[in-house]
Amino acid sequence: MADTFKHKGMRRNLVEHIRQGGRVHDERILEAMMTIPRHEFLDSSFEEYAYQDRPFPIGKDQTISQPTTVAIQTQLLEVKKNDRVLEIGTGSGYQAAVLAELGARVFTIERFKSLKESAGRKLRSLGYKSIKLFYGDGFAGLPAYAPFHKILITAAAPEIPQVFFDQLKPGGILVIPYGKGSVQVMKRFIKMEEDIIEEQHGSFSFVPMQKNKAD
Question: Which residues contact 147 (CB under 8 A, 6 or more apart)?
Fold first, then answer.
């Protein structure tokens, strides 16, 4: 799909909607979202709706997250240029593109092979060739490439595996929607030298994170 003036206009309206919501103040994130053609990460049947502030299905009972949620999670990460960021749950690839626009070195893992391959094609076609995609169980993290400055979980986690903290650098940040029900608490953990700081940042709704490779 082409990125037309119409798409850019709808994208501008979406970004302004997020800005006016008052929860996202990092203009770098809004600029990144203005740059990325979200409609490219969705089936063409959703093209007219791609810039609504809503999640949409992408197959395998997974979704592309609501743009405001993407922006809030990204802001909580406090991404700096050249940060090594592990994303667990590649999905459509849109969140990985946002991280890359902020200058992060992105490592992203997806348990559905078809989604991983589809996201890889989309990201490469849009020029995000440095993003490293992996097929595997997100509950294991990515030990071969650890440690990371930041870890982002994009599905509802019923537990918080110790390996996530093990794979964080000191001073690193983990952002994770935690809970088993239909609504989760967005938690942020900051790994200090001696302990871990835990924060809560509101309620959200994500598809559940699942163990093991699936297809």
Answer: 84, 167, 168, 169, 172
